[in-house]
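Here is this case:
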Amino acid sequence: MELSVTEYLQALREMHWQSPEVFVFEDSLSREWLTEQGSLSLLLEKYCNNLSVELLQSDMRKPTELALSESEHLPFEDYLLRKVILKGDGQAWVLGRTLIPNSSLTGETHDLANQGEIPLGFTVFKRGDVSRDSLQIGRVSIAGHTLLARRSRLWVAGSPILVAELFLPNAPIYAQGNQ
């Protein structure tokens, strides 16, 4: 990664989010990636031999720490903050920031609080009762790169999870002809 994780996280937190209906996509490839309804982890896995997770943070937080734009999508309760870097064959591809309300942690067949270095998508999308809504897209120029991001709410067994993903400079979304 060219910048520090802190700088990428800051860019993600300050992103100007837009609905896909008003966002101007650069090409059909970016549209496909950013509007993907399934697991981003499973999609990324197709472009490498080894998809891995670097776990940066996984701890409980108070709802008062949420940004207003985040709290609009989640219940007002303690939540698990999970920050990761998804890597394809050792290259940093995606910075992920996931908010899982405490009520969404209970009653699951897998303890999402102890997900560790397993991609969240591998666990969540194994279930048949997952849907995505509140999809938002963003773009930021940072260190000479225009980076794309998306944020959406996943519903897992009727419980919400808010996921934000920043596509880092080496991510396959930027590679021409990788369709």
In short: The mean pLDDT is 88. Residues 5-13 form the longest helix (9 residues). The first strand starts at residue 51 and ends at 61.
